[in-house]
TrEMBL record:
Residues 45-446 form the GH18 domain. GO terms for molecular function: carbohydrate binding; chitin binding; endochitinase activity. Its EC number is 3.2.1.14. Transmembrane segments: none annotated. Residues 612-622 have a biased composition (Pro residues). Keywords: Carbohydrate metabolism, Chitin degradation, Glycosidase, Hydrolase, Polysaccharide degradation, Signal. InterPro entries: CBM5/12, CBM_sf_5/12, Chitinase_II/V-like_cat, Chitinase_insertion_sf, GH, Glyco_hydro18_cat, Glyco_hydro_18_chit_AS, Glycosyl_Hydrlase_18. This is chitinase.
């Protein structure tokens, strides 16, 4: 593990929370429930979660429909069925899972059984919810090319899909053709992969195919007096966009679910972010096209430039990781002169919980956050993070709570249509859904559409001994998501403070639920927030915040188990340095401890003198907020330091350029004059 320099200073701290009572709603949401409900009622924003056929098996921890947080979604896409290449009939690949399981409460002659029957019941309980059937996916897109080939096959496929929707009481169709215009043979190493034929004719036929389905659904909708939806999961690679006509086919879709993930993975010998928000042009290992275009921002703006309305664009969020073994090199992100794995080289055989290539659910990699050897890094330019074990030479790229929140803010700022995530069972669902909650609060303003489901609950509907315990056909790139590698592991694990007075627990029946701790802004600022969330379970009555092993703040809560608890510690006036934080949630039964969050200040005072506390609360910093000029950061180092081509600059370094001073945001080499501070705001901020 790499060592980081820690500066111990007194801090100015403001404690902000969303209720004067101990049990609080998440501070991501503001306003009354009625005002939030009104906001969502007038919004077309959607939050789409994929529920997979194979999720009920042991390889995916037996995730049943009864565990879906339907009160925090607008849409569920059930994945996957296929289309027979010859007859265009709808194919169910695992009938036992999809239509045949007799759950408790069902009878052998129940009309709707299996996963689809459970989803129908979920729709009855949550009338706002839309359930779509997703067709295709990475391993089951073999029938699309033939189905789209001519008017006859298009009409036949559209009719069959429409009939399937009506038969199972669904709300529409989601087409997941991976990918139009691309001819991909079967993967000989994957028994479930059927390949995906394709050709240049798909460019026009894909549009006509969607048009035929749209017309069939609309005709049925007029008969039934309802609106049937048509959406599509869309590849965002620049080469895949080029062989379709987004400006044409978008007219037939209610939403485009952009698959803005799998941009890099172990299918390459170089390491990279699998779902970066922005490009980091400082990466020299990829081509200019890949560096510039393999990021969410480029993809979103490309679709808008092609004529797709922003309101139809739904950004995909991965609830899983990709990764490499045998990693070496990479850029030096923390300025210690050693490469940190990212943008280096790596091997393809890292075993993940869900598959080779480091494919693991968020909750599995999150569990690594406090494991010795693993260190978490952030790319402040790309707004991405990764987990790296230098000794084991293993690296996971993933989304965590901060990157998900940053992407949700981006969605709102650009007026996009919402967020989609692959897949529901990748989140930490047994402990209350870390990522689902952030998307819900950010995109839907925290509006609760119904009664909360007990996290981790199989609803008593586990079919028990019928469960074969294996995954019969796990999808792969583009459709098989998974994980959030966790927090950094520096600093000291805080011990129990014998001086803490713990109020009694009135409703809790055991130890508090494990809290999570996340920073609310990217590294750099001298003022920042640390948000504690305990999403579900036994409540704590005291929360204590520790910095570098020393308790620096505490707050009392009322016990309102099993509801969520949330609290934001606002910190200001920090000196430059790296700080390790943990939170302890305590009740009369004992203590639960969060993972460690490491925050690096580069825009604070260079002095280690104590900063006087400020008694009044300060507004919580927002992700990406630069927070204004910081004291002590407005002058270059003694003797001056003029920016020059081919200079090596480290995060926090101050230089002068054309009479102005700039602070470096990320360690890099200035390869040409175009990298000057005035023209590269991703690398420099003017003081």
């Amino acid at each position: 593990m790499k060592k980081t320099k820690t500066i111990l200073v007194a801090m100015a701290m403001a404690l902000a929370f969303t209720s004067c009572k101990g049990i609080v709603a998440s501070d991501l949401a503001e306003g009354s429930s009625s005002s939030r409900a009104a906001a969502v009622a007038t919004s077309s924003k959607r939050v789409v979660g994929y529920f997979c056929e194979w999720g009920i098996y042991g390889a995916h921890d037996n995730y049943y429909a009864t565990s879906i947080p339907a009160n925090k979604l607008t849409h569920i896409n059930y994945a996957f069925v296929g289309l027979d290449p010859s007859s265009q009939a709808v194919q169910i690949f695992d009938p036992w899972a999809t239509t045949d399981i007799v759950y408790p409460g069902d009878k052998w002659d129940t009309e709707y059984k299996g996963n689809l029957g459970q989803l129908r019941k979920l729709k009855e309980e949550y009338p706002h919810l839309k359930v779509l059937i997703s067709v295709g996916g990475w391993t089951k897109s073999n029938g699309f090319h033939a189905a789209a080939a001519n008017a006859t096959t298009r009409a036949r496929a559209a009719e069959n899909l429409k009939n399937f929707v009506v038969q199972y009481g669904l709300d529409g169709v989601d087409i997941d053709w991976e990918y139009p215009g691309v001819n991909r043979p079967k993967d000989p190493n994957d028994e479930y992969d059927l390949g995906a034929p394709g050709g240049i004719e798909d460019k026009e036929n894909f549009t006509l195919f969607l048009k035929a389905i749209r017309e069939a659904l609309d005709a049925q909708g007029r008969k039934d007096g309802k609106k049937y939806e048509l959406t599509a999961a869309i590849g965002v690679g620049y080469d895949k966009i080029a062989v379709t006509n987004p400006g044409d086919y978008c007219k037939y879709l209610d939403a485009l679910n952009l698959m803005t993930y799998d941009m890099h993975g172990a299918f390459e010998s170089n390491t990279g972010h699998q779902a970066p928000l922005y490009a980091n042009m400082n990466c020299g290992i990829y081509s200019d096209d890949v560096r510039e275009k393999y990021n969410i921002d480029w993809a979103v703006k490309k679709f808008i430039s092609e004529g797709v309305p922003a309101s139809k664009i739904v950004v995909g969020l991965p609830f899983y990781s990709r990764g490499w073994n045998n990693v070496s090199g990479g850029l030096d992100f923390d300025g210690d002169g050693i490469g940190d794995g990212m943008f280096g080289t790596g091997g393809s055989t890292l075993s993940g919980k869900w598959g080779v290539g480091g494919q693991s659910p968020y909750f599995a990699v999150k569990a690594l956050e406090n494991t010795p050897g693993w260190v978490k890094y952030r790319d402040e330019v790309s707004k991405a993070c990764w987990l790296y074990n230098r000794g084991a030479r293993e690296l996971y790229t993933y989304d965590d709570q901060l990157t998900i929140k940053t992407k949700c803010d981006y969605i709102n700022e650009l007026g996009l249509g919402g967020a989609m995530y692959w897949e529901l069972d990748g989140d930490d669902w047994k402990n209350g859904y870390d990522l689902v909650n952030i998307v819900h609060e950010s995109i839907l303003n925290g509006v609760d559409f119904g009664t909360d489901i007990n996290p981790g609950d199989n609803g008593g509907n586990n079919p028990g001994n019928n469960n074969p315990g294996t995954n019969p056909g796990n999808d792969n790139p583009g459709t098989n998501p998974g994980t959030n590698p966790g927090n950094d592991n520096p600093g000291t694990n805080p011990g129990t403070n014998p001086g803490t007075e713990v109020p009694p627990s009135s409703k809790a029946t055991g130890l508090p639920g494990t809290p999570s701790l996340e920073q609310t802004s990217w590294n750099g600022e001298a003022s920042f927030g640390l948000r504690m969330n305990m999403w579900w379970g036994n409540n704590g009555t005291v929360a204590e915040l520790y910095e570098n092993g020393v308790k620096i703040a505490s707050v009392s809560f009322e016990d309102n188990s099993p509801n969520a608890q949330s609290y934001t510690f606002n910190i200001s006036g920090k000196a430059n340095g790296t700080y390790a934080y943990q939170v302890k949630l305590i009740n009369s039964f004992g203590t639960a401890v969060s993972g460690t969050v490491t925050y690096t200040v580069t825009k604070g005072s260079a002095s280690s003198e104590p900063v006087n506390p400020q008694p009044e609360p300060e507004p919580e910093p927002q992700p990406g907020d630069q927070g204004g000029d910081q004291p002590g950061n407005n002058q270059p180092p003694a003797g001056g330091n003029t920016w020059a081509v081919m200079g090596t600059y480290t995060a926090g370094q101050v230089v002068s350029y054309n009479g102005a001073n700039y602070s470096c945001l990320v360690t890099h080499v200035a390869y040409s004059e175009t990298w000057n501070p005035a023209d590269t705001p991703a690398l420099w901020t003017r003081l």
